[in-house]
Each structure stands twice: as C-alpha cells, then as structure tokens.
Amino acid sequence: MACISIQSALEHAITVFRRSEFSSDGQQIHDARGLLCFVLEAPNSHLITHADQLLTCHQWSRFQSLVARRSHDEPMAYLTGERGFWTMDVKVTSDVLDPRPDTETLVQACLDYLDASPKTVLDAGTGSGVVAGALVRERPGWQLLASDLSLRALRVAAENLKAPAVPLVCGDWTAAFSAHSLDAIVSNPPYLAGDDPHLSALRHEPHMALVADEDGLGAFMRIIGDASRVLNPDGWLFLEHGYTQQDAVIHLLRGSDFQLVHRMNDLGGNPRVVVARLTGDHDE
After folding, report:
1. pTM exceeds cut of 0.90
2. Do 110 and 122 contact (CB within 8 A), yes or no?
3. Per the database record, which ranges form the Release factor glutamine methyltransferase N-terminal domain (predicted)?
4. CATH classification of 2-72, choosing from 1.10.8.10, 3.30.365.10, 3.40.50.170, 3.40.50.1970?
C-alpha cells in the first residue's frame, strides 16, 4: 500500500527539522535526503529523478521514526549504522562515539612521523576501531593492536577491523601490555570535563567515551603515566585533545620524560593533536 511521494516525504522532514531548529537549513536538507536514501536503499539522484514515486506505508513509517530521532540531535551515524572515516565506511552504534572528521588529524600525524617499516602500534581506547583501521590500511607492515575498556565497543571494533588482523584487548588503556613492548601509542581518549557545556548536545553518545575526571585530563594522566613503561626507548606518543587543552597535555608530557615533537591543528584550525617522543632509556 502506497502512502506518500518522495517529494512530500522530504518536505515533511524539512518541516520537522526547521521546527526543531537543531541545525542549518543546508544540513537539514542534507540529512532529510540522507535518511530517505537510507530507507529506500537508493542513491541521492533517485530522489531527484523519481520525486513522484510513492513510499510504501512501511517505508513512510520508518522514515518518520528516523526523522523524529534526528530532530532530537541523534547522530546520523546512529540512525544509518555507518559513517565514512578516512577511506572507509565503518559500522557505528550508540556503544561508540560517532567518529569525527577532526580525528583524521590523529591518523595523519602517525603517518607523517612514523615510516612504513615494521612497528608495533597500539590504538589505546579504540572505540569503533576507526583509527586502527585507517592505520592498518595505510601501513600494512605495522602490527596494530587495539584496547578498550568497553566490551560493547570492542564488538563494534571487531566488525570494523576484521579481527584477528588487529588483536583486540579488553583493558584500561595500556595496562595489559608488558614493558617495552610498543613502538608507538595513538589515542583519542575522553577529554571533556563533567560539567562541560557541550555534553547536552552529545547526550546520545556513550558518557565513558566523552568524559574524564581531573577536569577532563584524567585519561591523559593515565596514558602518559604508563607510556614510559610500555614504550620502547625513543617510542612515540600521539594524542588527540580538546582545543583548549594543548598546553595542559604538553605540561603532562614534559613531566614524564617526553619531548614535544609537533602540534597539529584540526580541519577547523583548532589545536587538536600533539606528537611526542620518549627521551632516553627507561627501566620497568
């Protein structure tokens, strides 16, 4: 049984989005089209060339449900179940963060400073596995490892990483790894403080992947504090951080025998990544 045309369905969605005032007009149109393409399993061009096509009642009901959820700021990736990152389309669920384009800066930093020769690299707090997945694609000679404290997140990562190509470890950051076993650590840890005003807009995403103690610096303290134990001499540490946290993270690094190598800005020009290297030999 047919219910409504493609054109009318899009107009309905845009009306709902504008009433909610959750994004710009351009984004609202983009999201409406994206959701309808997802429901119809059709490309965007189909919406233009078949604007009078009628949706089935099942398609219309499903589309309305997705539009309602999106109007309450639920990320598109949670609605469609996937997100583009680097050169991949990855599975995303509400058990992991919605991957941000700015995190590609973290991947690029690793590629800029580490050559393609064999290395053992840990993605600490891997979440959906997007960083490890991007690195293993670009550096097939590396042994990538991925850790996370959340079993649910590791299940998502396993699908994206096609484990056992990248071994997954359930544990807190670097705690499960032996002394001097890694050449590099890369991490995008939680870095929001518990009272951060941005949290209300991120309410659909897992709290443990967003918020850290010590005013948002707790995860950095633990990662940096244990990095000198697990890294080989002259090992590398790549950290994504909040745009106001760079000086604080650099202070932590310098207090733990790391030399700052480089600072990198994200796509919006905000401070986002620090690159550091362990100085000298360290005992267990």
Report:
1. yes
2. no
3. 18-81
4. 1.10.8.10
